[in-house]
Specification:
By secondary structure, the protein is an alpha+beta fold. It has helices spanning about 45-55, 55-70, 80-90, 95-105, 110-115, 120-125, 130, 140-155, 160-170, 195-205, 225-240, 250-270, 305-315, 370-380, 395-410; strands at about 1-5, 15-20, 20-30, 40-45, 280-285, 290-295, 320-325, 330-335, 340-350, 360-365. Helix content is about 45%, strand content about 15%.
Length: about 400
């Protein structure tokens, strides 16, 4: 049976309990296979309990030193109790200078100390006891997150000035670079906000009119990688030219903000019906997995829009060949997404008296999803003949393969 002997106001700071009359430190740390915190106990003496009750700083220092041992236990391993017990006297009962020396030799979790008010400069100089004079029972997790983010930047040599930090704060990426950027002006120091907004305005002017299209080869909301890279490069160049002193992190977060907003607009924009002249009356769409869809003129959507919807529904890593066929005219195109290529197929002679029909097959390279869209629209408007100006077209397979390998090499 466990009786709680001592606890602090912050729920995560280790408690002291008694089991069979013996005091033990109880702490939750690490995670099990279900990502739930694991619970560990460490036997302590009455002298240790007295210090834990009276000295918040020593209590927190002990916690920070035990956490790496808990992490080392993994999802199901046992806590190294001997190592844990060996920390008790040196942290709770030794003079401050000895505690400082110990913390220069052992692993410890600085984030917990920073969250509870430790003076960061003293921590970084190894003066842990002095740093904990400002300790508080209540945790400030944002302070710990900021410290962790700054350490990560320092490790890769990134130095932020006040404007750099303000821009990252504006986009919500100061703490976590993986966060989707957004506009949070209220989070920025009002004295720096006008400068931040001028940087953002420079980026907006640079990419005005640019868009990021969808790439149905990768699903319904996937965006065109080349459009993204083109917009990012444009913004990056403009911001660096106007503000050469900005850190790379600040420039990248502005570019990412512009790209993310453009991509969001693309995802909310209906697929364009881009055939000016609906030259086809009926088409069949197929893929490499026996998928098929019929399109007839007069329906709610044009052929191009319907085809790209079919691609977004069906495209996958093992399904990258799609065909548009006009059975009445005996012609079609086959898109090879895996090879950035296309084939146009025309019937030279229909089969009769049991003979097979004869086809002319010509190949061409395709420049990204934009190139595919142009070719599909041209075929829908005017069939294979409308593709003449979008070549070169090669009927010799060996010649085409040489051209494709040369393009890939570049």
């Amino acid at each position: 049976m466990r009786d709680i002997v001592f606890t602090r106001s912050s729920g995560w700071i280790p408690n002291v309990i008694r089991e069979k009359g013996e005091p033990k430190l109880l702490l939750a740390a690490g995670a099990d296979a279900n990502h739930e915190p694991r619970v560990f106990t460490v036997p302590i003496s009455e002298a240790h309990l007295a210090v834990i009750q009276e000295d918040l700083a020593r209590h927190l220092l002990l916690w920070s030193a035990l956490l790496p041992l808990c992490e080392a236990a993994g999802t199901r391993g046992r806590l190294d109790e001997n190592a844990a017990v060996a920390l008790l006297d040196p942290i709770l009962l030794a003079p401050p200078e000895d505690v400082d020396a110990l913390f220069r030799r052992i692993p410890w979790d600085s984030s917990r100390l920073v969250a509870h008010g430790a003076t960061i400069g003293l921590l970084e100089r190894g003066q842990v006891c002095g740093a904990m004079r400002a300790a508080t029972e209540e945790a400030n997790e944002k302070r710990a997150q900021e410290h962790h983010a700054n350490r990560r930047r320092a490790q890769r040599g990134a130095v932020l000035g006040p404007l750099d930090a303000a821009i990252l704060t504006y986009t919500g990426q100061y703490l976590h670079g993986a966060t989707v950027p957004r506009r949070t002006p209220d989070a920025v120091d009002p004295a720096l906000l006008p400068q931040v907004l001028r940087v953002i305005a420079t980026a907006e002017q640079a990419c005005a009119g640019m868009r990021i299209g969808l790439d149905p080869r990768r699903g319904h909301r996937a965006t065109d990688k080349r459009d993204w890279e083109r917009l990012a490069a444009t913004v990056d160049a403009a911001v660096r030219r106007a503000y050469p002193a900005l850190a790379g992190d600040a420039v990248r977060t502005v570019s990412l903000l512009m790209c993310s907003e453009a991509a969001h607009r693309a995802g909310d924009t209906p697929v364009e019906d881009d055939e000016a002249d609906l030259g086809k009356t009926a088409l069949t769409f197929t893929d490499d997995k026996d998928g098929e869809r019929k399109w007839l003129r007069g329906g709610p959507r044009t052929a191009s829009a319907e085809f790209w919807e079919f691609v977004a529904d069906r495209s996958a890593g093992d399904n990258e060949v799609f065909t548009i066929e006009d059975e009445e005219l005996g012609e079609g195109i086959q898109l090879h997404f895996y090879a950035d290529s296309i084939a146009r197929i025309t019937t030279v002679r229909n089969g009769d008296a049991g003979s097979d029909p004869q086809y002319q097959v010509e190949y061409s390279l395709v420049d990204g999803i934009g190139g595919y869209r142009t070719l599909v629209s041209a075929f829908v408007r005017g069939g294979c003949a409308a593709l003449d100006g979008h070549g070169p077209w090669m009927s010799d397979v060996a010649e085409f393969e040489r051209a494709r390998r040369g393009s890939t090499a570049r």
